[in-house]
Amino acid sequence: MASPNDSKAGSYHHGDLRNALIVAAAELIEESGSTDFAMIDAARRAGVSSAAPYRHFRDKNSLLDAVAELGFLGLTEAGNAATAGQPQGSAEAIIALGKAYIGFVTSHPQFYSLMWGDMSWREVPAEQEKQSGSCFYALADAVGAWCRANGRDDEDVLQLSIKLWALAHGLSSIAMHGHVDYFLPQADAYALLESSTHTFLEGVRRGA
């Protein structure tokens, strides 16, 4: 992906300008902790004219959509890296995905609301839907492989995956806001995810 620099608009290839603006907006969000910036701020950050962003983005909301897509892509890559060395069909592969989820959210809290917050103000673009779906279906693939490896082929994989996603998502949100140890001193989000996942999968394995 292109990085923002001080080049003039004319030096960008068609796709590079779009990518540079997305990266510029993402950096502004990461630095400020909010989406309270103007299109001209992203243009300045990318080193292009104030009119340049509108060649690729209808308005600020469409630029934010693209930043959310970038966030989901980063989450997918984090999950892929975490499971690269895990045995297929193992509980460890599922746990690795959950830990990667927590790690990504707590490392990039500025993007949490953008990726998962209220989207009633806009239509979710097809590419963003695809990116968010790829994160979930990576989990579903791992859960399906675990079910087959443990003789639970009759299980509803999507139902199980949603429950495990809710576990990771909930712990990520709590950890992001610094409340993991609110009721239990020294509680750790990663350890809670690991133990809870093992407990959940053991119940599924026993047919509970």
Approximate strand percentage: under 5%
How many beta strands in the DSSP annotation? Answer: 0
The helix tally amounts to: 8
Weakly predicted, low-confidence segments: 1-14
CATH class of the largest domain: Mainly Alpha
Q: CATH H level of the largest domain: which superfamily?
A: Tetracycline Repressor, domain 2
Please outline the major beta sheet. Answer: none
Shape assignment? elongated
**SSE topology string:** HHHHHHHH
- Tally of separate domains: 2
The CATH architecture of the largest domain is: Orthogonal Bundle
- Structural class comes to mainly alpha
**Average pLDDT over all residues:** 88
C-alpha-based Rg, rounded: 20 Å
What do these coordinates show?
It is a single chain. The chain is mostly helical. It folds into 2 domains: 1-57, Arc Repressor Mutant, subunit A; 65-205, Tetracycline Repressor, domain 2. The protein has 8 helices and no strands. It has helices at 14-32, 39-46, 60-83, 91-107, 112-116, 126-149, 157-176, 189-205. Mean pLDDT is 88; it is low at 1-14.
